[in-house]
Amino acid sequence: MRLSARNQIPARITSINAGEAIANVELDAAGVRLVASITIEAVRDLGLAEGGEVTAVIKASDVILCVPGD
Fold first, then answer.
1. How many whole angstroms separate alpha carbon 32 and alpha carbon 12?
2. Pairwise CA distance, residues 55 & 67, whole Å
3. Residue ranges covered by each domain of the chain
4. CA gyration radius for the chain?
5. DSSP assignment of 4-54
6. How many Cα atoms within 13 Å fall on the side-chain side of residue 2?
């Protein structure tokens, strides 16, 4: 599959915390923790499981940073 998104980060699934409709899939990307919130259906359809290898694809038009104070 070819994607226009350039931010493609290989990662390993460290845990899947499933709710009623959404699961938080925690990833280890070379020591950096990422969390993807996806549907339970997507977890099932993709066959995701702890220890599995995935690629996190990040596509965003804005990244906003804030610092406390002032």
1. 11
2. 30
3. 7-58
4. 14
5. S--EEEEEEEEEEEE-SSEEEEEEEETTEEEEEEEEHHHHHHHT--TT-EE
6. 0
Residue where the block lists tokens 């996806």: 38
- Of 47, 15, 60, whose CA–CA distance to 34 is shortest? 15
Q: Which two tokens stand for residue 29?
A: 């990307």
Q: Which CATH architecture fits 7-58?
A: Beta Barrel (2.40)
Q: Encode pLDDT of 10-53 as tens digits.
A: 999 999 999 999 999 999 999 999 999 999 999 999 999 999 99
Give whole-number Cα distances, 40 to 17, 20, 51, in Å. Answer: 10, 8, 18
11 and 51 Cβ atoms separated by less than 8 Å: no
Structure tokens given for 22: 């959404």
